[in-house]
Write a structure and sequence with these properties.
The complex is a heterodimer of chains A (198) and B (405). With 198 residues, chain A is an all-alpha fold. Helices cover 67% and strands 0% of the residues of chain A. Chain A has helices at 6-27, 31-51, 55-78, 92-115, 133-140, 153-157, 163-184, 191-197. In chain A, helix 1 (6-27) packs antiparallel against helix 2 (31-51). Chain B has 405 residues and is mainly alpha-helical. Chain B contains 14 helices and no strands. Chain B has helices at residues 2-6, 12-49, 66-76, 87-103, 122-130, 133-143, 147-178, 183-189, 203-219, 244-269, 279-282, 291-322, 328-356, 385-396. Chain B is globular and about 60 Å long. Classes of the chains: A mainly alpha (198), B mainly alpha (405).
């Protein structure tokens, strides 16, 4: 019997699930079903990340994208719906536009992927290294994790990592959060209305 | 395990398949039998709290076959579906819930090395996956085409999305003390006397545990936070329209995730498989060179761990039958005005504590040898630029990838 390479098997399985449900998102006209298909597709993508050994990215994918779709489902769909089961029709023009945008993106991605010469030949020794999340965290806090094994102590201390961009992004997010809370709060405090809101 | 099987089964791929199936089989049975036992326990506990006996007849003295009888009744029930329901989503929703709850077990270690997959980011993975359980609830609420179900699902969504914030902050505290997100390493670091457990590491972690437990109770949708199935107002909430086996799958998922969050609490705060006294070391069972002793030690550890989890679940039951259900605005207030600020303060407190007083409230009384992959709680040298990199190297070394270079 032919030996089964489980790695390829799961790669194909996850890939097929991701692509199949992505098609489902496109072809379905029921919004909640679309969101469900999207969740399955994204979860399969996270399975691909696990397969590649990138546990942190995979867990991130589960938490942010899959969890985020949940919020999208609730606030974007349910709170704006008028009828019980919402359907959405796409016109021919939208199909053509979507096909052009998606197709050109596909062409760019495929040409980019096939242009890397290393990826064309199969690796002799598949990399066994498992990147730990500790290194990612250290890098975010400014340590040069690629220089840790350097013999020269001055090199090891390294330059700044991504501390500044990290801080800028977090402050930016905080500003956005405060802004959202400010916009969402009732303009005038009316006694009856405030009680109703609470 | 796959390596062990490779010696016996000729093709490698078969060994991997068998190993995976054994793991999956054990875990599914753990969830299913756990649910059976916990439902019986819930009946007994609630009975005792309400001054009655609970089930007494089925299966002898304590009515311990009651759940099985319930199960047989549920299997024979008709599988109903409302006329206006979205058939596909209605049918799938219980499985989505169950899968999410079950996937959390993949990274949950029951003893040293006794886990399905040792992930570098196990804590994060479990929190992320358990957060997905709500998806099944929302799909169920939506697809039932019933007002009660939809109300229940919306409440659940609001509740879970808000409680993930303080829950995440609480989980970060032990991770920060341990310096890793690998649950195996976190549990190893709490080896020895019970004062080594992270819950006794400093006053802030002690407080964090209670906030964690509150948020975990809320995130697995248990009373007093079971707004999604408030039977006095919403008939039965999101599972109003469900009957028979599908309904019971929801409950299997609920009890499964109760066990999982209790397990996470046990690992993060209560030393995982390490008992209050280092009995395994005293009996000489921690010796990895002797396979039988090692196995026994691991078995004792697993008993320890499962005991802690069962205690956690029982605690949740106790809370459920003691406290009245909160209103939705009270649930939100508890989360946003109490849990989140307390979690933030304890987080900062724990950071400052580990910075100024490394090593915990009680001096670490470490027992036995430092195991592979274990890091001692040494104060990081401070001040010099070079020390950051030194700290980095010492931290990086605990990553379970010795073969990487």
């Amino acid at each position: 019997m032919e030996p089964i390479n489980w790695h390829s098997f799961f790669f194909l399985l996850f890939g097929l699930v991701a692509c199949g449900f992505a098609l489902g998102v496109m072809l379905s006209s029921n919004i909640v079903r679309m969101a469900f298909y999207l969740v399955v597709s994204l979860a399969a993508t996270s399975g691909l990340f696990f397969l590649a050994g990138a546990d942190f990215v995979a867990a991130m994918q589960l938490m942010i994208y899959v969890g985020g779709t949940l919020v999208l489902l609730i606030f974007g769909v349910m709170l704006t719906a008028k009828g019980p089961f919402i359907t959405m029709r796409t016109s021919a023009g939208e199909w053509i536009l979507g096909a052009i945008v998606g197709g050109s993106l596909l062409v760019v991605l495929i040409s980019a992927a096939t242009n890397v010469s290393v990826w064309r030949t199969p690796l002799e020794q598949p990399a066994q290294a498992q990147v730990s999340a500790t290194r990612l965290g250290m890098a975010l806090l400014g340590a040069r994790v690629d220089k840790l094994d350097d013999s020269d102590p001055a090199q090891r201390a390294g330059a700044s990592g991504y501390l500044l961009p990290f801080e800028i992004v977090s402050v930016h997010l905080l500003v956005v959060l405060i802004g959202a809370a400010y916009l969402a709060r009732p303009k005038k405090r009316i006694r009856g209305a405030a009680d109703e809101v609470a | 395990m796959a390596e062990f099987l490779k010696g016996y089964l000729a093709p490698d791929w078969l060994a991997y398949l068998v190993a995976a199936l054994v793991h999956a089989f054990l875990l599914v049975n753990l969830v299913a039998i756990g649910a059976l036992i916990f439902i019986w326990l819930e009946r007994k506990v609630s009975g005792r709290i309400q001054d009655r006996l609970g089930p007494t007849r089925v299966g002898g003295k304590f009515g311990w076959l009651q759940t099985l009888a319930d199960g047989i009744k549920l299997v024979t029930k008709e599988d109903l579906m409302p006329e206006g329901a979205d058939a596909l989503l209605f049918r799938l929703a219980p499985y989505v819930s169950f899968c999410a709850s079950y996937a959390g077990y993949l990274a949950l270690p029951f003893a040293y090395g006794w886990l399905a997959a040792r992930l570098n980011v196990a804590v994060f993975f479990i929190v992320a996956v358990l957060g997905l359980e709500v998806f099944g609830v929302i799909l169920a609420g939506y697809a039932s085409a019933s007002k009660w179900s939809l109300f229940g699902a919306m409440r659940e969504a609001a509740q879970v999305v808000s409680y993930e914030v303080p829950l995440g902050m609480c989980v970060v505290v032990p991770v920060l003390i341990a310096g890793t997100m690998d649950l195996t390493t976190i549990a190893q670091m709490q080896e020895g006397l019970f004062v080594n457990w992270f819950v006794f590491h400093d006053p802030f972690t002690f407080l964090t545990f209670w906030v964690y437990f509150t948020c975990a109770t809320a995130s697995v949708n248990r009373a007093p936070f079971d707004l999604a199935e408030a039977e006095s107002e919403l008939v039965a909430g999101f599972h109003t329209e469900y009957s028979g086996l599908r309904w019971s799958i929801f409950f299997m998922a609920e009890y499964g995730s109760m066990f999982a969050v209790s397990g996470l609490a046990a690992l993060l705060f209560f030393g995982g498989w390490n008992g209050p006294l280092p009995l395994i070391h005293w009996l000489g069972l921690a010796d990895a060179t002797n396979p039988l002793a090692h196995y026994l030690g691991n078995f004792l550890g697993m008993v320890n761990f499962i005991g802690k989890c069962v205690f956690g679940v029982t605690f949740m039951m106790w809370v459920r039958w003691t406290l009245p259900r909160l209103r939705i605005d009270q649930v939100m207030t508890t989360c946003l005005k109490y849990c989140t600020p307390i979690a933030a303060v304890t987080f900062v407190g724990a950071v400052l504590w580990t910075y100024w007083i490394p090593g915990g409230l009680f001096l670490p009384s470490r027992y036995g040898q430092v195991r592979e992959g274990q890091m001692l709680l040494e104060p990081y040298p401070s001040g010099v630029d070079d020390s950051l990199a030194a700290a980095a190297t010492s931290t990086v070394r605990i990553a379970p990838a010795p073969q990487s270079r």
